[in-house]
Design a protein that fits this description.
alpha/beta, Rossmann fold, 9 helices, binds 1,4-dihydronicotinamide adenine dinucleotide
Length: 248
């Protein structure tokens, strides 16, 4: 039997990057996949088709994770279509990097609402379903930068550190109902987000990584499968770094 057979996963920001890799990996393990992104465009449609080609049910939803109303509607739509939600991945995230001296209030607020408030929104929206089922796994996509901080990313690192506190609190609130909540802290993973960085910054990052390479979205997906599945039935409130040893 596959690791996620019979389970339904909801992944935010799933059209591309790490979210998409998780969707494909979960589908390969037999899960039905609901994923969201800002719009239903050709990228979302292509991802939806790639997932379906693995022989599972899949649907992409246009939904802004930073909006509580959108998140509640998304959770309702997913339950209406798939009947349950076993796995929630709070993956949607953005960067608006700058030194604090130059950072606008707008960029602080935007990063907080997309990266951190989204976890509040979606977790609040799905928790009733998971509590009723008496099982669930919530995975929050934090970052090594949320653990260690990073110059030029005060908004991003604060949002990702906030996710860790949120993860540990949810593990304590929901543990008695057999709903688990863990965080993944990826390091330097090759996606559109990191392709925006200048070449010299990328090389600097890579030379400081003990495993001497950047990570792939699939490296993150492998750890996410563990957290999503019953292999981690006794694991909650933890932060697992997937960073080639960047953070120890
Ligand atoms: P990406 O930029 O390639 O993909 C993020 C996806 O989220 C995009 O499809 C985007 O449209 C979507 N999104 C943005 N705002 C949204 C919103 N309000 N509602 C719904 N969807 C929204 O980024 P990547 O690299 O795949 O990152 C995924 C997660 O992993 C993020 O939370 C990021 O902070 C985190 N992460 C990434 C690292 C990396 O090196 N790439 C390292 C550490 C953490």
């Amino acid at each position: 039997m596959k690791l996620l057979e019979g389970k339904v996963a909801l992944i935010t920001g799933g059209s591309r990057g790490i979210g998409k890799a998780l969707a494909l990996r979960f589908a390969a393990e037999g899960a039905s996949i609901a994923f969201s992104d800002l719009k239903y465009d050709e990228i979302m449609e292509a991802t939806e088709n790639e997932i379906k080609a693995l022989g599972v049910q899949a649907k992409g939803f246009a939904s802004n994770a930073a909006s509580l109303a959108d998140s509640e509607k998304l959770a309702e739509d997913v339950v209406a279509l798939f009947g349950r939600i076993d796995i929630l991945v709070n993956n949607a995230g953005i960067t608006r990097d700058n030194l604090l001296m130059r950072m606008s209030e707008q960029d602080w607020d935007l990063v907080m609402s997309v990266n951190l408030k989204s976890a509040f929104n979606l977790t609040k929206a799905v928790q009733r379903t998971m509590i009723k089922q008496r099982s669930g796994s919530i995975i929050n996509m934090s970052s090594v930068v949320g653990v260690n901080g990073n110059a030029g990313q005060s908004n991003y690192s604060a949002s990702k550190a906030g996710m860790i506190g949120f993860t540990k609190s949810m593990a304590q609130e929901l543990g008695s109902r057999n709903v688990r909540c863990n965080a993944i802290a990826p390091g330097f993973i090759e996606t559109e987000m990191t392709h925006k960085l200048p070449e010299e910054v990328r090389n600097q990052w890579i030379s400081s990584i003990p495993l001497r390479r950047s990570g792939k979205p699939e490296d993150v997906a492998d750890v996410a499968v563990f957290l999503a599945s019953d292999l981690s039935a006794y694991v909650t409130g933890q932060v697992i770094s997937v960073c080639g040893g960047m953070s120890m």
